[in-house]
Amino acid sequence: MKRLWRWLIPLAALPVLALLAYGFRVNPRDIPSPLVGRAAPSFTLQTLDGAPLSLEAHRGKVVVVNFWASWCYPACYEEAPILERNWRAYRDRDVVVLGVDIQDTREAAEKFIRDFGLTFPNARDLKGTVSVDYGVYGVPETFFLDRQGRIRVKHVSAVTDEVFRATVDRLLSEPRTP
């Protein structure tokens, strides 16, 4: 009996070690979102300027929903100027960028927006329901929606000019459907 117990503990550890080994090999960015291809969860928030921000108000446009936080350094700091630059370049082409600030204080969020001169609408997800509905597990995460309001791409980590332009250009090139 003593001999059996001596081998039982190391044997019980084997599945745990195998699971850990698998977990270290998997890149969380490669895990596909079950929301891709589905209608984006609708939301209505209040921007930091006090205006209502409704996803439904932008139906018919390509929408980029970016989840961020002021404490997200360096990734959110790297992508903020990229989002602003592309918002300015594409906003006259029926593209809108919406920022959703999560797990942040109002003061820190306002400072972040001021420091980067962000002009696209930004709202705080005070209850965390929007980020939960989108399955956000970290920041930054960006969702690209087509004109019908379907999530077509989920990008985890800082958005680059190349990712933004390639994705938005592809969505803009798709035929409009009524």
Pick out its properties.
178 residues; Glutaredoxin; two-stranded antiparallel sheet
Walk me through the structure.
The chain has 178 residues and is of the alpha/beta class. It has a single domain (35-173), classed as Glutaredoxin (3-Layer(aba) Sandwich). The chain is built from five helices and seven strands. It has helices at residues 2-25, 75-90, 106-116, 129-133, 161-173; strands spanning 44-46, 52-54, 62-68, 95-101, 122-124, 141-145, 151-156. The strands form two sheets. A five-stranded mixed beta sheet has the order 5-4-3-6-7, covered by helices on one side. It is globular, with a radius of gyration of 20 Å. The mean pLDDT is 89.
The CATH superfamily label reads: Glutaredoxin
Per DSSP, the total helix count is 5
Strand arrangement in the largest pleated sheet? 5-4-3-6-7
The residue fraction in helices comes out at: 25-40%
Q: What distance lies between the first and last C-alpha atoms, to the nearest angstrom?
A: 73 Å
Listing every helix as H and every strand as E from the N terminus to the C terminus, the arrangement reads HEEEHEHEHEEH
CATH architecture, please? Answer: 3-Layer(aba) Sandwich
CATH topology: Glutaredoxin
CATH class: Alpha Beta
Instruction: Count structural domains.
Output: 1
- On the 0 to 100 scale, the average pLDDT is 89
Percent range for β-strand residues: 15-25%
